[in-house]
Design goal:
Blueprint (H helix, E strand, L loop, with lengths): L11 H14 L11 H8 L3 H13 L3 E3 L5 E3 L20 E2 L14 H13 L11 H13 L7 E4 L2 H12 L5 E6 L3 H9 L3 E8 L2 E2 L1 H9 L4 E5 L12 H12 L5 E5 L19 E7 L1 H4 L6 E5 L1 H12 L7 H13 L4 H21 L11 E5 L3 H10 L2 E2 L1 E2 L10 E5 L5 H15 L9
Parallel strand pairs: 3-13, 5-6, 5-8, 8-9, 9-10
Antiparallel strand pairs: 1-2, 4-11, 6-7, 10-11, 12-15, 14-15
Length: about 450
């Protein structure tokens, strides 16, 4: 079963360490089936509970996965192998349009907000024992959520969307649980789920968000959580429409025990209305990050949800970092109250480029998607070949493999750095590199 590699150890930690060394050295390949617990226990002369404990540790670390009677296997892609490694470096002379970064010209200056936050700190420095959430930020967040139809709930602040999602998942789920997640979807999230010892359950989507039949299938199959991106879905730009939100709420109403996580990381860069799903299930959270609109280094996300979930997040946060810097929280307060950020202009800036590229590709017979945000998703027949040919033509795009589980091949193009003069040239290059592609290949 394991070839020449032999798992060793007498204690659970030693057995787990032996498996990890085998995975790290390559002697235990991705997908390798491990011995049944009783069989390995007999071979090592230990109690089966010891092996069970070792396997549990390995699942929690994202090294292996267990599928009931089919046994335990080394994860097909070890959790330590980030999808971000599936990137295309841009050599000199090649335009980098794969990174998903915002346009620096559309980011607000932080000089005045930082200075205002420093003045506030000088007057009233934050100390141990104080609330983890700045009261003014909480007030503004609650008002913003209420205006968008998000149900009222307590507020937590985390270091970005992914930090919030990780804390919420660990607050409710245990290793081995399945999480329904968009496919194609955010690469960081697709890495996080298995790293937590959880199983991603792919859910196909279209331009209106996750398909209701796919969500129903995943939840009926036992998924304990569902993660939905409301707007600016990465990588496709999908937006949950009003009609789709109504359909998804009907599905969720049949599964009230499911943990619902909504990610609004596109806040401040989109102009499409929000149609939240929150409040249908017993446990839910809504996460709003400012990183895309105000800059990736401003690691602040405001989160609301049911009281139990938010309390668990805050309680665990107190035992780790304690809180997100109140200086950074005050910067967000200043940005929200100063009127210095014209979110409509920002959204239009990205929209003009995105829509122009989608139109130019359509004129050349290339199917492409991008209703919101800063990315365009282009289905292709040969993903690797398309990426290579575009690189040769002077464009570094993101391979779809970074964002896919079972959905068809594609490439992702970030429009942030494009000018009007770039659109036709890039569209010609994509059309030439991608070749013909059957219609209806979104996901």
């Amino acid at each position: 079963m394991l070839g020449e590699y032999r798992i060793t150890g007498r204690r659970a930690s030693e057995i787990a360490g032996s498996v990890e060394r085998g995975v790290g050295s390559g002697d235990l390949a991705p997908g390798q089936l491990l011995p049944p617990m009783r069989e390995l226990a007999a071979e090592l002369g230990v109690n089966p509970n010891t092996v069970a404990s070792a396997y549990r540790t390995l699942r929690e670390r994202g090294v292996i996965e267990t599928a009931g009677r089919r046994g335990s296997r080394v994860r097909p892609r070890p959790a330590s192998t980030a999808r971000a490694s599936l990137r295309v470096d841009a050599p000199p002379g090649v335009r980098q349009i794969s990174e998903g970064n915002p346009d620096i010209a559309l980011l607000p200056s932080l000089q005045a907000p930082l200075a205002a936050a420093a003045r506030h700190h000088a007057q009233r420095p934050a100390l141990y024992g104080e609330a983890s959430v700045d009261p003014e930020l909480a007030r503004l967040a609650l008002a913003s959520f209420a205006a968008d139809g998000v149900p009222h709930g307590p507020i937590a602040v985390t270091s970005g969307s992914l930090d919030a999602i990780e804390r919420v998942l660990t607050a409710h789920l245990k290793p081995g649980d399945a999480v329904a997640v968009e496919d194609p979807g955010w690469a960081g999230l697709l890495d996080l789920i298995p790293a937590l010892g959880l199983r991603p359950e792919p859910v196909a989507l279209d331009e209106d968000g996750p398909r209701p039949d796919e969500v129903e299938r995943a939840l009926a199959a036992g998924a304990r959580a569902l993660i939905v991106t409301d707007r600016a879905q990465n990588p496709t730009g999908a937006v949950v429409s009003e009609a789709r939100a109504r359909e998804l709420r009907e599905v969720l109403a049949r599964h009230p025990g499911v943990l619902l996580i909504e990610d609004d990381h596109g806040y401040a860069i989109v102009d499409q209305p929000l149609h939240p799903l929150a409040g249908v299930t017993d446990h839910w959270v809504f996460v709003r990050s400012v990183a895309k609109g105000y800059g990736p280094d401003l690691r602040v996300a405001v989160t609301t949800g049911d009281a139990l979930t938010v309390d668990r997040v805050l309680g665990r946060q107190r035992l780790g970092p304690g809180w997100v810097s109140r200086l950074l929280q005050r910067v967000v307060v200043e940005l929200w109250t100063s009127g210095a950020v014209d979110t409509g202009a920002v959204a239009r800036g990205y929209g003009r480029r995105r829509e122009a590229l989608v139109r130019a590709l359509a004129d050349r017979g290339v199917e492409a998607y991008g209703r919101s945000g800063m990315n365009v998703w282009v289905p292709v027949a040969d993903e690797t070949g398309t990426v290579a040919r575009l690189l040769h033509s002077g464009w570094a795009v993101a391979p779809g493999a970074r964002f896919r589980m079972t959905s068809p091949p594609a490439i992702r193009i970030t429009v942030s750095g494009l000018t009007a003069d770039d659109i036709a040239v890039l569209a010609d290059a994509v059309a030439s590199a991608a070749g013909p592609m059957p219609a209806g290949s979104y996901g």
